[in-house]
């Protein structure tokens, strides 16, 4: 008889706790065993977990946990377009946008993608006049993916200069206005629901800016990206400039849909398609590979090991690549909005779920936060992400120093350095994984993001939580609406704040 989930967790908890140094000494094949690679045509990505505390035995126990959690069945449900978000009675079909999923959903996604491709092509060819700038307004999943992808892939000679604006603080929109010429600017309004107050307010202000600056038909300059096209029509956008996507695509999983319009506009259709293809390669790997050889599943094993068995409350991601400077922001939403839950799918208390995701770029972070990582009292599992090929054309010294530092940090965190002087002592035994891309092109980027999506899903399955809802964000919105409406009383502190700010 197979194990229950509780039995699997109990077995995991009984494991000894050797140091990383002991693990390397005990197994000369450790690097090979704990390293995986995905091939993506001419490039690939190497994943090295040898500097984590994972062992053959732990991996076997985690495989048992995955089995006890019906991981295979849940994965089939995900790719089969079945309900995997029971609290909202929805499927989660982001992989169908990349061509991997239930046939009907893949076909529907293809048709919508074709529509977007035509519009992108038409804009590039001048059908909407000269277009030099795009101001993309959206928030959360409707902004973080586009911002990251445009920043990562759209640096060299972008076809259109894209500005992603999410904050309702007008300072953000003003910054975009200052960088754009209204006569050659399009506005993308990106909102799955087409109701989000920040986005709709920013959209109104962007149209006003166009009108105030002599654009005769401001709504004619709007492209709407939404799962509710009827709302965009009501708002005044012509149907030919509305790019819909399926309701079964969650906000934080939506950069592959029409929400990715600014990405395609900036980097061109071929590279946008390459990004989808890279993600699809990771989808197929995740769908078709069992046990520890499955890269996102293995990453989830490591995440759960540190979360549940070593009590780590945070995990950090350091990209040794300037092009990925927005990755920690993106992953914060992906991981914390998905798995930041306190009850299981059955509504029972769950125990610890998502760690707090944080991070930065190397080498900047070394000169700011790494002190705590080396000598502080927290154990923080780290992912280092880098590319062997440089992203710059300068003297190769830049990239050498970047990569050397990346590898040196992993080595130093693991080895530590003993000193009789407690202030100069480094305890070591601090875990890290290294994700090393051959090159950071659009394909690799797509695979990297899909890897994280599936990692989150795999962890959620083993934690028995629903990664696809986000009710936790609603209460604050509700109270903001009540404040706006007036007539309600709040706690004394909030009342005082409202009063001194002239809002109460
Ligand atoms: O408030 C959270 C959230 O619903 C996110 O999940 C989502 O990505 C974001 O708001 C934006 O929502 P929309 O795309 O509907 O404007």
How would you portray this structure in words?
- By secondary structure, this protein is an alpha/beta fold.
- It is built from 19 helices and eleven strands.
- A six-stranded mixed beta sheet has the order 1-2-11-10-8-9, sandwiched between helices. Strands 4-3-5-6-7 form a five-stranded parallel beta sheet, sandwiched between helices.
- Strand 3, helix 7 and strand 4 form a beta-alpha-beta unit.
- Helix 1 packs antiparallel against helix 4 and helix 7 packs parallel to helix 11.
- It is globular.
- The termini are far apart.
- Bound molecules: 6-O-phosphono-beta-D-fructofuranose.
- 6-O-phosphono-beta-D-fructofuranose (F6P) binds next to loops.
The side-by-side strand order for the widest beta sheet comes to 1-2-11-10-8-9
Q: What's the helix-strand series? A: HHHEEHHHEHEHEHEHEHHHEHEHEHEHHH
The geometry reads as globular
Q: Return the structural class.
A: alpha/beta
For the sheet with most strands, the description reads: 6 strands, mixed
Question: Which ligands occur here?
Answer: 6-O-phosphono-beta-D-fructofuranose
Radius of gyration: 24 Å
Terminal residue distance: 63 Å
User: Low-confidence stretches at least 5 residues in length (pLDDT < 50)?
Assistant: none
Report the sheet-strand fraction: 5-15%
* Helix content class: 40-55%
Instruction: Give the integer mean of the pLDDT values.
Output: 97
Beta strand count: 11
Number of helices: 19
